[in-house]
Queue: 4 jobs
Job 1
Amino acid sequence: TMSLFKKKVFVLVGADSELGHELVCHLSVNGARLVLGGEKRLRLDASVSEAMRLGGEAISAPMDMTKKEDYENLILQARAAFGNIDYLILNTDPSTSFCPLFADWNGFTSIDRVLSRHLTLPVYAIQLCLPFLMKRSGCIMAFSHSSSNDPHPCTNALQGFLKGLQDEFQASKANNVHILSVTIGDMKADSKSEAGLVASSAVRALATRTATLRMDSQWSVVARRCFRSFYPKWLCGLLCCRCRRAGAKKVQ
């Protein structure tokens, strides 16, 4: 992937998380140019330093992820620093920040704030980047965290939009922008080791232009393997039909 990503420009929204930092590391060793957006300035600055150390180029763009103007500024900074945009990575799932239960939302203000952060403004980022991505045969990658232990009504909101957008792109046959949806199951993306595994698999999926990627925790994999060692294959298939093997489940 070294030659594939060398000098390519990545706009990464939500770069201030552990997963964001691991993505920075994996892309930097491949010579990527990175524009890092997020709310934690110190973490962004640390990621910029690490990117430079690993052989990439990076700038930080601290932002309020509920403000339209900050998304616009993020794209302007990317264009000013590197000229083009080849990849847009959205790590804006509800798990990346505190998000109250729906029962605790207080009127339309809460609805507007939550949806702006996790759906409306990420979609706006896609709209802002799309003209540049179309010129470069670029890619949009978005993460969602579908843990059954921490459900949230916004978890799959962006993924649902991207599925419809992908269908529209395929129907028009005039758009060469690729969309990759990464679903993280019960993995702890705030854990360095598991975030590193997710980032590594996601970067490989980008290189092969996979359409979807499903990640499961190692504990889930161990449990399924033990289950399969005691029960017939047909029964395992019936009861575990929704399970995925470790690492990646790809759908081209």
Job 2
Amino acid sequence: MTFRALIIGTLLSALTVYIVSYAELLTQVIMIGFLQLPPVVVALMFGLVLINKLLERVNKRYVLGPAEITVAFSMMLVASVVSSRGLWSGYRQY
């Protein structure tokens, strides 16, 4: 695990929290962050892999390894579940 993986994972986790919170507070019906594979995380992961493949063609020095991508993915999954169900479940009134 590298510092670069933690920085990318933190930035993508913040984006995940923003998207999940916005979507769930706006609709108040679906919980997109609480699914086994949240669509937000899948979409951001797809974007990360796509950018990684483009970087491979431009400069191999900046390409993320499998372990770094796994760290970012794991951080996004945890951020998605916590922002969806973990912190808000006690404060919402259904």
Job 3
Amino acid sequence: MPQLWCARLRRRGALFSPALAPLARFAPALAALALGVACRSTDPALYDSERRLLVERERASYRLAVAPFVFESGVERASAERPLALRSDEAALTGQLRHELEQLGAAAEVLEVRTRAFRDVPRDAADLLLVPTLRSASFELRGAIGGAGLEFLAWYTTWIGGHFVEDYDYLADLRVGAELVRVEDGTVLERFEYSSADEGPMSLSFYDRNEAFEAGFFTTLVLPPFLTADDAEVLVDSLTQRAVQRIAARVKRGLVDELPEKEYADLARVEWLEPASGTRIESDRVAVRFSIRSKRRINEVLLFVDDAIEPSFTVPSRDLADAYRGGVFSLRWATELALDPERGRHRVRLDIVDADGRTTRRSVVLER
């Protein structure tokens, strides 16, 4: 089968130029290279400060509710006169953000809610509320990049391979302001302003800008992809998706790297040591380990399983008293919790209550 495929490619190549026809022998390698370039993520926004992919880092131990986007009055929308502008409405952009946060593993659980007010979010539904506002949105072509040579060779020898090579740079600038609010008491733990253009332009391939089996697709039968016109609707959708992915990455960096220190300054720094969110379990019991550090006296540490109203475990008050020394509370704890064998998904929640009655929460979600 590979020999037959390559023979057909050689015949196709000969129609263009007998001198270039031998390149068809490299068709499988070029196709693999093109697909490898297309699939490998090089977007700097998707890495942390130590060059680790954010998607490979553990989920933050919060249940995160995503409030609906609000668009400020200056946000320009797509029209017949202005095709290269935002097409998503508030609901669509909110759904995209929730999806990208989940794909990146930003939190133990990512939920959509219909309110921007923390008081309207049930306390047992989420630990944090993300409240986003879109300030402005713009898209522009920056120019061709250095992938044209590889794209031409992949297109010439395989046709389809050339469609996956990134060949043009675009700047997608979604400017967002957001707040991270603790649902328990409405404390704003973090405010940030972010632009998806902060990490520079985005490189797109033909398939990022066009639909299969549309006019542009069939044009590539005779012209290499970088010489064809683009579908403005598909282009804007791809740029919006990439921009929202960058916004989600900014949120995850905040949750895993920045928020713990801000929580420590406000109430307590909590490290959920075991199990990690998303862990698959087979037993009806699960080992739980965590550490708490605070500048405040902590009066209660409670563990809840699933939808239970009463705690499944309470750290003894004597141990809490012993953990407070020299104006600093420091506690490491390990225990086991029983799980309902009939459930396919479990949520373990840790509540920490300080001497003033304020509560901070952490959650992990476990799968069977």
Job 4
Amino acid sequence: MTDPKHLPRLYGEKEIGKILKRATELQHEEPSAPSADRMTLQELQDIALEAGINPALVRRAAQEIDTGAIEMSTWEKVVGDELLLVREITLPGEVRAEGFERVVEVIQRETREHGQPSLLGRTMTWRAENPNKTRTIQITVHSRDGETSLRLEENLSQFAGALFGGVIGGFGGGVGLGVGLGVGLEVLGSALFATLFPMGVVGLSYIGARQIYRAVTKGRRRAMERLFEHVLAEVQACLVEKELPSGDRPPELTAG
């Protein structure tokens, strides 16, 4: 049986925070220590791996910072989540001519939507929206100058407007005012109840709408992640290295 005295000590969450904070302070106090003010993405991933954090999540967080996805706008703070979901990446290599058609096939298979693809030069754009326009998806593959960029975005602004307008205006305003005025004034004869009850119902409706929106956005984000991985895999399969112009190619070696 292992002696409890020889077991490694386990640190709690607060202790971990204090240790890391103190270690950072000591790092800055060391005159010969390398600066930790800047780190590459690979260094961050290595640290995350040692801390038991999935490096893929670090890459995703870095991408969200680069695209500004973490900084929420005023309306996004109101609804409780992002209004525009974005995933993008840039890869070395260019998509071969027939590759764009294959990418469109993968998109339509995975989304089960018959969107409108268009090809302008070396840029392919695929766009789809449902009949009530509460869901709009756009996928762009741009391949040029030895690089290919893939971008997926889903605009949820119309969905948010319909959701909050329906829940707050329809339920909150309709039920709140109907019951508040009907019961408060006609039955109870209380102007206070007629005023406070609608306000309370509208407030609860707003909270409920936020919860619904966050749940839906979470599901859409997961669906986008799966779609992104499938499209990315097809784009990578269609990539070819950019060929050098004839004048820039190295001379061929001849035997003898």
